[in-house]
Each structure stands twice: as C-alpha cells, then as structure tokens.
Amino acid sequence: MNLNAPLLDVRDLSIQVAGVRPPLVDRISFSLRAGQTLCIVGESGCGKSLTSLALMGLLQTPPLSIAGGTAQFAGRDLLTMTRRELGQVRGDRMAMIFQEPMSSLNPSLKIGEQIAEAVRRHKGVSREAARARALEMLERVRIPAAAKRLDAYPHELSGGMRQRAMIAMALANDPELLIADEPTTALDVTIQAQILDLMRDLQAETGAAMILITHDLGVVAEMADQVAVMYAGRIVETGPVAQVFDDPQHPYTIGLMSSMPSLGARSDRLVTIPGVVPQAAAMPDGCRFSTRCPFRTPICDNVPPLTSLGNEHEVACFHAPLEQTPKLRVVGA
Questions:
Q1: I need a labelling partner for 224 at 20 to 30 A (CA). Which of 21, 42, 188, 314 fits?
Q2: pLDDT for residue 188
Q3: In angstroms, rounded to a whole number, what is the distance separating the alpha carbons of residues 39 and 24?
Q4: What is the domain partition of the chain in residue ranges?
Q5: Quick one: average pLDDT of 322-333?
Q6: CA dihedral 176, 181, 186, 187 (to 10 degrees)
Q7: What is the pTM of this model?
Q8: Contact of 253 with 234, CB cutoff 8 Å
Q9: CB 177 within 8 Å of CB 93
Q10: Which of these, 12, 42, 16, lies nearest to 27 by C-alpha position?
Q11: Rounded to whole angstroms, how far apart are CA atoms 95 and 173?
C-alpha cells in the first residue's frame, strides 16, 4: 500500500438534475490525504452540499443523478458501490455531520439510542457495549452531565449540545473520513468557536481526514490545510490555504475575500459581488462566473481549465496570473 496515496481521490465528478442540460456540479476534482482538512468554500447554490451528499450516497435520485466521474476512497470507487456496500462504509469508515442537527437527529429516539444504533450497526456489539460507547463519545465531545444526556431527546438539548451529539455519532466508529457540511451555521459565534475547536482536537486525536464545507472564510483560515473555491458547480481555484489566501488569482476568490469585514479601521464600504449564482438552466456556456465578472473578455465564452500556478495552486481563469494582466492591475489599483 502506498502511504502517500490520497485517502479520497475525486476525479471529474458531475451531478445532473433531470431535464436540465448543464450539470449542477461539473467535472470537479480534488484529493485528500489522511489527517488533512480540505475546506470547500463558496456561496449558497454553488454545489458544495450536493458534492458531499454524492460522496455519501445520499443524493435524492431522481431527480438528481451522478453524470460522470469517480470518487476513489481507500482504493474503492464510492460512486459504483451497491447500496449494501455503501451502507457498510457509510457511518463506519466515513461519516457526515449535517448543518442542522434538529432535522438530522431522530426526534423520537433518545440521544444515547441513536449513537448506540450506529455502533451496533457496524461493530456488532451488545446493547450494553454500544451504550457504554455512546456515553464515552458524549464525554469525549464535552457534553456536561453526559450520563444524563444519554436519555435525553434532541428537543431537550440546546443547539450547541445537539451539534456535539451529532459529532459524537459521526465519530463513534472512528471513521477515516469525516464530512462536515456547514456544522456551525445555526450556532451563535461563541458556540461556533467551541465546536470548531472540538472538531480540530478530535481530528488530531483520531488522525481522520476531513472535508469541511463552509461559506465562512474565517473558518477556512482557521481549519484548512487545502481549500477549494467553488462557483456554480465548478472549482475555480484550489491549493494550500496559505497560498490561496496570500495570492488569490480568481476574480471570484478575490471578491469573496474582499467582502469579509476586518477588525481594523475601515474607510471604504465592503466590496460586494454583483448579481447572483445563475440558475441551473441559465448557466453560461463558458466561464460560469463571466456574467458577474468585471474583467470579462471574449475569451471567457470558453470554459477555462484549471491551470497550475506552482506550489499546488491551480486556478480556472484565462487572465491568471492577474499581475500580468494590465486591465486587472488598473482596476485593482
């Protein structure tokens, strides 16, 4: 076995919706090694959550379907597994944390029962052993009075505690890959910070790889090793987080970063990106950002390939590197 091989290697993944010609997710590729964190960032409607659901085998089919590509997980293609094979992997070797635990947890089952069920499903242990593991996990995610919370229903817990319970359930079988879809969106900022700290600590303990889906660049800066910027179903920029943040090369990435408030004094208004992500049936034929990009030229009517800028930094823009494009230099001056 090649120890340097990626744990997850996604190539040209496309997701289609019935009756719509352009793919919602269009030939995206990325890879992830054990212990690494990849953040996928972008506005709502860019295909981030669809990508995670496709990897977990949770797409609503129909109307959605995999239109092409591969997703090799530990040498096996997730996209061609049978439902039975995927059921053996999902919840055991790979797991997911959803963004709204109140709608993801079963409201009619106690927290301890839900965690224990995941353990029994994959490990074949007794009810007593599964319950003991559930208690261990609730303590591990730092839920106060964990023994009491075992017999609580989801509605009896706060939002932060419910999310901790979701993390406990996801990690109960020590997965090699954890997918977290906006895990702190519904929480206040103090609880957000606690949950992110918890996830980082647990990842360091277990050595799991993690895909973190977010629209918050602050979370990306804090958590990511690698970042993939996604727009309208395509990855437009990717690379090591420090490289992308220090030298963003796609106009969309620059727009996202410029729209973030800073703690220092600010003399100008925050930058906004005009327009919205186009609907699936109205996607431009070429660069999908071209309808919102102030630097659009006729060449943007073609699809820009991801091009290497060195140091694993890739960008899908005909004008990159931007420093060599006079028009962009003048506009940004």
A1: 188
A2: 85
A3: 19
A4: 8-93+175-324, 103-174
A5: 53
A6: 40
A7: 0.91
A8: no
A9: yes
A10: 12
A11: 9
Q: Which CATH number fits domain 8-93+175-324: 3.65.10.10, 3.40.50.300, 3.30.70.860, 3.40.50.460?
A: 3.40.50.300
Q: Both tokens of residue 13?
A: 């993944």
**Distance between CA 256 and CA 18 in Å, rounded?**
31
Residues 6+ apart with CB under 8 A from 262: none
Residue 137 neighbours by CB distance under 10 Å: 26
- Residues 115-136: pLDDT tens digits? 999 999 999 999 999 999 999 9
Beta-carbon contacts of 158 under 8 Å, excluding residues fewer than 6 positions away, are: none
Q: Are 189 and 218 a contacting pair, CB within 8 Å?
A: no
Using DSSP's 3-state secondary structure scheme, residue 39 falls into strand
> How far apart, in whole angstroms, are the C-alpha atoms of residue 77 and residue 69?
10
Q: CA 68 to CA 259: how far, in whole Å?
A: 34
pLDDT at residue 84 tops 80 = yes
Contact 215, 184 (CB under 8 A): no
Please answer whether residues 16 and 63 qualify as being in contact, where contact means their C-beta atoms are separated by less than 8 angstroms: no
Angle separating helix axes 111-123 and 159-171, nearest 10 degrees: 10
Which two structure tokens, joined as six digits, stand for 282? 């109205």
Alpha helices in 5-126 (DSSP H): 48-56, 83-89, 101-104, 111-123
